[in-house]
Amino acid sequence: MATRVAAMGGDSNHFSTAEAASALGWWLEAGVDAAVQEAPRDWLKPTPAPVAAVAEAIAPPVRDAEPLPDTLDLFRDWLTSSAALPLAGAGAKRILPHGAEGAPLMLIAEMPGPDDAAAGRPIGGEAWALVTRMLAAIGIAADDAYCASLACFHAPGAKLGASELAECAEIARRHIALARPQRLLLLGDAPARALLGKPLPAARGHATKVEGVRTVVTFHPRFLMQQPSNKALAWRDLLLLMEDEA
Fold it and tell me: What percent of the chain has pLDDT over 90?
């Protein structure tokens, strides 16, 4: 049995009964009792000034290596084999992106954690189950999303310094440009800092563009599992992401 779930700001998709139930579960967790925002939106309110200047606050590093690949297939091959990526090293597990070019949504998450490494994907375990429910609530099947992480290595104890964050930003921008998603959702503080030049609290609540793609920042699902009271805020972020552009 299939159910039609309307995408917020997009076309409706066909979902199975289980997928529809999953979406309903997310709505209930987020405290949603209607498919619209609680407060009316002033659609005539001027659009906030673009944050492109802020996004450039993290200057790309000067790369001594050869230029980044210029097709998605070559880029993914490069991610698979390059030893020059941020956090590459002994003991680091490479976690590669998955998804198709031109996806309705691209997710860029924080560095992979233990559950992600165990699953061999940028977001794994219970966090991926939560993402699946979140995406179903806005009419996107999780398997249709393009999923990547800011640094494609699980390196226990490693942190992204300023130079690594800048290099990750350069790589992520090329990734986005080649993947050509319709929308982009940044999950967590590091992607917000790398691509928008702002920490997550300052970057949330605003839609901007990265490589020409409508972009919104929200909490990483690992954080939402630890702080479920923030699911209502994450729902607002999803609504903002899926709004039709003027």
Answer: 66
Mark 53-71 as b/e (b = at least 16 C-beta within 10 Å): eebeebeebeeeeeebbee
DSSP secondary-structure letter at 73?
Answer: H
Q: What is the pLDDT of residue 236?
A: 97
* Euclidean distance between CA atoms 220 and 187, whole angstroms: 4
Alpha helices in 46-121 (DSSP H): 52-55, 72-81, 114-119
What is the rounded average pLDDT for all residues in the chain?
83
Token pair in block for residue 162? 């300023």
Domain 2-34+53-242, CATH: 3.40.470.10
| The two structure tokens encoding residue 217 | 């920042």
pLDDT band at 7 (very low <50, low <70, confident <90, very high): very low
Spatial separation of the C-alpha atoms in residues 168 and 166, rounded to whole Å: 5
What six digits make up the tokens of 74?
A: 């070559």
Indicate the domain borders of the chain.
Answer: 2-34+53-242
pLDDT tier, 51 (very low <50, low <70, confident <90, very high otherwise): very low
Tell me the CA distances in angstroms from 76 to 20, 66, 172, one per residue in order.
33, 15, 12
DSSP structure class, residue 120: T
